[in-house]
Automatic annotation (TrEMBL):
The keyword Transmembrane applies. PANTHER family: DISULFIDE BOND FORMATION PROTEIN D (PTHR13887:SF14), GLUTATHIONE S-TRANSFERASE KAPPA (PTHR13887). This is Protein-disulfide isomerase. Belongs to the thioredoxin family. DsbA subfamily. Keywords: Disulfide bond, Isomerase, Membrane, Oxidoreductase, Redox-active center, Signal, Transmembrane, Transmembrane helix. The chain crosses the membrane at residues 22-47.
Length: 237
């Protein structure tokens, strides 16, 4: 019979089953490496958990605004805050729009400017327009849709049939995600958001549009310069 003697074979098998001991120096190095990795991971976790999160300015801290109000110009809570309640079908709002844009440019970096919805029930497409703008706002295009509404107001204002399809074409023109836009328009929460502005406006004494508030006080305007005069006084205080 060929092969190693039983005793010698058993010795070889035991040798294969028994792992060789690593040198002490190698073991020490491995332990040190593991400890170093643990320290690095702990440091990274500490930095991530202890670093303060960036907090966006709370729009609700401004007078006559909500946390979700559409703040087109933001300087800070200490700057004068101009809030406009408007109706996209209101002809006076449309006439005011270029003037308001001039004011924004004139006082750029000096005032906060906020837009709030106030769709007058007697205007057939006021709510449709506001919902379309709010749906666009959910994709970061509030101001673009706002501008389109006033630029085209003469084409659809005072009509007695729904202009929802026209407003949808504006969303397409702006390159919005149409599935998201359609979902937002169909979502009752979108109209509810508009109605919240309207209800708060009524509670604040808004009876028509446009109505402006400066630092929480409703302005009585008899001429266009009354608005800039009020802003100048607020900046001088």
């Amino acid at each position: 019979m060929y092969g190693a003697p039983p005793a010698a074979l058993e010795e070889q098998m035991n040798a294969r089953r028994t792992p060789k001991k690593l040198p002490t120096v190698v073991v020490a190095l491995l332990i040190s490496a593991v400890i170093a990795v643990i320290i690095v991971i702990a440091a990274v976790v500490y930095v991530k958990t202890s670093a303060p999160d960036e907090v966006a300015p709370d729009r609700g801290e401004l007078p006559i605004t909500r946390s979700d109000s559409h703040v087109l110009d933001y300087v800070g809570p200490d700057a004068p805050t101009l809030v406009e309640f408007l109706d996209f079908e209101c002809e006076v709002c449309g006439a005011f729009a270029p003037y308001v844009e001039e004011i924004r440019q004139q006082y750029d970096g000096d005032i906060n400017y906020v837009v709030r919805y106030f769709p007058i029930p007697g205007h057939f497409n006021s709510m449709n327009a506001a919902v379309a703008v709010e749906a666009a706002a959910q994709q970061g295009s509030f101001e673009e849709m706002h501008d389109l509404m006033f630029e085209t107001q003469a084409e659809w204002g005072e009509g007695q049939t729904s202009e929802a399809a026209r407003f949808r074409s504006y969303a397409e023109e702006l390159g919005l995600d149409m599935a998201d836009y359609d979902a937002a328009v169909a979502d009752p929460g979108t109209q509810a958001r508009v109605e919240e502005d309207f209800s708060e406006g009524r509670a604040l004494g808004v009876g028509g549009t446009p109505t402006f508030f400066l630092d929480g006080e409703q302005l009585e305007l008899t001429q266009l310069s009354d608005l800039t005069d009020a802003i100048d006084r607020a900046l001088a205080d």
